[in-house]
Amino acid sequence: MDEPFGIPPNGISEIENGLRRVDVDDLIALAVALDVSPAVLLMPNPELPDENGEGVVYLDPADPLDTKHVWNWLTARDSLTTGAMAEGANELESCDDPDFDYEERELWRRRTLPRFARERRGDG
Fold first, then answer.
1. What is the per-residue pLDDT for 39?
2. 11 is in which domain, residue-wise?
3. Are residues 36 and 49 in the same domain?
4. Sign of the torsion formed by the C-alpha atoms of 6, 24, 13 and 32
5. pLDDT digits (tens, 9 = 90+) for 33-84
6. Gap between the Cα atoms of 22 and 85, Å rounded
7. Same domain, 48 and 94
8. How far apart are alpha carbons 94 and 92 in whole angstroms?
9. What predicted TM-score, i.e. pTM, was given to this entire model?
10. Closest Cα partner for 6 from 31, 34, 25, 20?
11. Is the dihedral angle over the CA atoms 77, 81, 84, 87 positive or is it negative?
12. What's the CA gap between 22 and 6, in Å, rounded?
């Protein structure tokens, strides 16, 4: 392979200048080259971050989302909807079940994650 990680020498410049779209192979190659998780490259920079870097990000221009919520989605810890549903239920005090968020999250994780990636209860 002549090109490091499959990106041609002018590829980075083309990506930076908007002349080349980043596909999944490029994303993985860049993550390997930078020694970071692909999720780090996908995470939008927060607007109005506080001293911890937390703020809001926009996946939809009309819907600001908490940075932790988006990060948890990108790293398959939670869905975009269950966290918001639980927050809304708690705000309205219409959810008497303290396990609501946990149960919804676990259903989503079982549906989303491959078996090898699921954490098992009781494992160290």
1. 96
2. 4-41
3. no
4. negative
5. 899 999 999 999 888 777 877 889 988 888 888 898 899 999 988 888 755 5
6. 32
7. yes
8. 5
9. 0.69
10. 25
11. negative
12. 12
